Structure formats: C-alpha cells, structure tokens
Automatic annotation (TrEMBL):
This is Putative ABC transport system ATP-binding protein. It comes from the Bacteria. Coiled coil: none annotated. GO terms for molecular function: ATP binding; ATP hydrolysis activity; transmembrane transporter activity.
Length: 232
C-alpha cells in the first residue's frame, strides 16, 4: 500500500465512557470509520450525541476508553499525554467556536506560538506566520491584539494559526457558532479553499447549509454512527 492510500483517520471500536457521580455516560459508544486523505467531512447529530467527544478523540485532546485509532497509519490511542501533545502540535490544527486566541499576544504572536514548540528556525516561523496571515486576508492586522478585532476577524486569525502548522488534519468544532452569517460564510469559504488545496478537514456544525459544503456527513446519535452520506 502506498503511503498516500493510508487513511488519515481510522477508528475501530472506539468508545469513550465518562463517569460522574456514579453515572456512566457512553459519549462515544462504538465508532468505526475511515477518513481518507484530503476528504472534507462533517460530523452531525443532535446535542449530546457525542460530536465534540469524537472530535476530541480524533484531535488527541482525549483518549478513548476502548478501541484503536490509527492517525495516518500510526496507532495513537495509547500514547502518553506528552506524546499526544507532540503529535497534536505537529500534525493537527484546531478551530474552535470560541476562537481561543490569547488576549495579550498580538495576532502574529498568536499564530507563531504553536510553532515555537517545534524545532523550527525563527525565519521559517516568520515566513509561515506571514503566509498564513495572507491566506486569510489578515496581514494588515498582524500587530493588533485580538480584542481590537471583530469576531469574524478573530476566527480568521484562528484559522491562520491552525494552518500555519501545515497540519495533516484540520478539526473545526462549530467554527461559525459565534459569527453572523456574513462572517460565517467567510470562514466557511476559507475552509473550502483549504480543502481545495488538499487539507483533510473534519468539522462539527449544526448549520445544514454549511454541512452540505462538506463531501460527506457522519451522523451520530447516542454516540453511534447512525447514517453516513456523501453529498452531491
Ligand atoms: P455533542 O457535542 O454532540 O453535543 P458531547 O460529545 O458534548 O455531545 O457529549 C456527549 C455526551 O457525553 C453527553 O451526554 C455529555 O453530557 C457527556 N459528556 C461530554 N463530556 C463529558 C465529560 N467531560 N464528563 C462527563 N460527561 C461528559
């Protein structure tokens, strides 16, 4: 098998159980799925169906209770927290609903910060920050603080931060949830461009119109995949 045929994500029998106050919640009950390189996938389902938990497992923010997870062919479900952090930082970009920018760092510093945890010369970091800012149309805001930007602009910076790492995989959890429709459309346009340039994207959204922009939707209910579909 050629490396490029290896799915970016392969989950087998993946479960996540939370225990709180003697209540057992099977947030992800038994998920098996493969996501090939370059695919744009939407995870949909009602509130509480396990979308965010599944995205956290895929993003190595959490570990499964059972099952295996191959990320680009490598088993990653039993890694230590330090190893997970390294793989996450080098291979996965995140865009969250709440932007998650650091308030006392400038736009450029926010984008550069994750790159400083890698063995990367300063000149390469600066090149990547500039190119990511250009990509999202925010070069003129490089020295601003997040609070000086609109929500839409902050989310564009968050997308720039995610892509500056040139991730294998981009994960987006309700990326337009805090945006009006104009800014939401702009952020979705950025994701489409990233997909066209070859990035694998897994997105959670409640917005049916945005969900249709993905190539495939995985529907969850009670932590299980209940339906899968490609889009015309
Ligand atoms: P969705 O993103 O589809 O709304 P979630 O993944 O957030 O669903 O949650 C799935 C289920 O797991 C819910 O019942 C939720 O209450 C529960 N859950 C999620 N995270 C935790 C946690 N850290 N501790 C306990 N229960 C959790």
């Amino acid at each position: 098998m050629q490396a490029s045929d290896t799915p970016i994500i392969r989950l087998e029998g993946v479960k996540k159980v939370f225990h709180t106050d003697e209540v057992e919640t099977h947030a992800v009950a038994d998920v098996r799925c493969e996501i090939p390189r370059g695919q744009y996938v939407c995870i949909a389902g009602p509130s509480g169906s396990g979308k965010t938990t599944l995205l956290s497992l895929i993003g190595l923010l959490d570990t499964p209770t059972a099952g295996t997870y191959l990320l680009d062919g490598r088993e990653v479900s039993r890694l230590s927290a330090t190893q997970r952090a390294r793989v996450r930082n080098e291979r996965i970009g995140f865009v969250f609903q709440s932007f998650n920018l650091i308030g006392d760092l400038t736009v450029a510093e926010n984008i550069e910060l994750p790159l400083t945890y890698r063995a990367m010369p300063a000149a390469e970091r600066r090149r990547r920050v500039e190119s990511a800012l250009e990509r999202v149309g925010m070069s003129h805001r490089a020295r601003h603080l997040p609070a000086q930007l609109s929500g839409g602009q902050q989310q564009r910076v968050a997308v720039a931060r995610a892509v500056a790492g040139e991730p294998l995989l981009l994960l987006a959890d309700e990326p337009t949830g805090n945006l009006d429709s104009r800014n939401g459309d702009a952020v979705m346009g950025l994701l489409r461009e990233l997909h066209r340039s070859g990035t694998t994207i897994v997105m959670v959204t409640h917005n049916p119109e945005y969900a249709r922009q993905a190539e495939r939707t995985i529907h969850l209910f009670d932590g299980r995949v209940v339906e899968e579909g490609g889009h015309a």
